[in-house]
Specification:
GO terms for molecular function: DNA-binding transcription factor activity; methyltransferase activity; sequence-specific DNA binding; zinc ion binding. With about 190 residues, the chain is α+β, with helices and mostly antiparallel strands. The chain has 9 helices and 4 strands; from the N terminus they run αβββαβααααααα. It folds into 2 domains: about 5-65, DNA Methylphosphotriester Repair Domain (3-Layer(aba) Sandwich); about 75-189, Homeodomain-like (Arc Repressor Mutant, subunit A). The protein has a 4-stranded mixed beta sheet with strand order 3-1-2-4. The longest helix has 19 residues, at about 125-145.
Length: about 190
Amino acid sequence: MALTNQEKWNAVIHNDPSYDGVFFYGVKTTGIFCRPSCKSKQPLKANVVFFDTIAQAYAHRLRPCKRCRPDLLEFRPMLDLLEKAKHIFDTYFSDRHKLATEIKELGVSQNHFIQLFRKQFTMTPVEYANKLRVEKAMQLLANTDTTILNIAMLSGFGSLSTFYDFFKKQVGLSPKEYRKTQNTNGDKK
């Protein structure tokens, strides 16, 4: 059953994502077309025209909205941002300065970023970075004879005492004890 223009208008004013892909709406005065879920300023009803396809919107010489990107099959700006953030953490977890610089360039407030990250990955950004640091330290302890002090620094911990405390809390063993369980040259400090 086809939707009425009033049903479509209701979906637009409520930014209803369940109608995305079902129809599109254009605003004659701006020359832009959007998804029903678009959070842009609500247009005047008299200026709105509805389309069943993107091709129809283009035929009316409208361009896609830069905010909701109706021209893309899937538009997930927050998920894309979080995937970029995860890549930054995976790359720079051991360089705190570079990590902070790269995350800041994402252009999201710290509180909002923490909320988004926790929702997506079930841990805070700091917890994720520390998890990566411990994993790197475990790998180095098990596979190298690098000193524990160097491992702490290579893994991104600011000090040996912080490294020892955090490692023992996460792994249940001190770095030296962990190294011994891995049957490596664990006698170095």
